[in-house]
């Protein structure tokens, strides 16, 4: 697995403000990013499972969590923030893509510091905890959220919609309260439908979409026993995919040499879902051989980040490029990374500065930290 190192992540995100919005999986995305910005370590099982703690790896709990009442209701709040001399990362726990609480978060963006990167996902709670017939409400909330977001954040902000990861056939989790247990058997199919609508709308509003459902469709062995959450190896892969995408969007060459993963350390503390569906035709011997090849020890050489040309496209900022009938230009072609590169759309031309420089040019927007 190609992993981004601590040094690469630290330089790429130098003087950047990153915001993560979402549920418990997005909280783990935030935690893994915070950990990687400080050291080349993986999240422990306890760190993955704990929520609402006062401090995680030098971050702080700003609101909610253990400061207030801990519960599994839709009104649960948790705001976390990690700040160093050159990095600022913030996390908001949300259970619905658009609500009165989301309005308050958008007001924070409107009146305060504008993020350089916004990573968002909200799906499983939306389609299970609010309405039995969720489709129309979810689509309307997505429209409203994306529309308001485009009016608040500057064009230079890199906005990424994380498409929801695959759910298991048998699931249990904090969101799955007794009143909705009957939905568990078909929720994984609802997620696929919701992913189509959310990904299409994100593309139509000019956001980037990182298809985590696609990337992890054959990595179900990294899903935990509850059928919802994922282990430390999966989250490091998510972090690497995100950082590689940042580098592409900012026109930066990010070399990613293969790194040795201490499997004994990770697997000992990360129990996986033994009942996960295995891809047909894959033999245990082949999986073992592939795992051995993937984690082969190679030299860990750091190459200096080098800027390269940016990306350009022909449509104006804010212009709708597609609807539900939209088909990507390579829709009927085989999947090639040179075509898709983790995203569903062409990238905006952005005014980018080298992320490893000492001084950031003033844009007149946002604040300082």
Automatic annotation (TrEMBL):
Residues 269-292 are annotated as: Disordered. InterPro entries: SGNH_hydro_sf. Gene3D superfamilies: SGNH hydrolase. It comes from the Eukaryota. Transmembrane segments: none annotated. Belongs to the PC-esterase family. This is PC-esterase domain containing protein 1A.
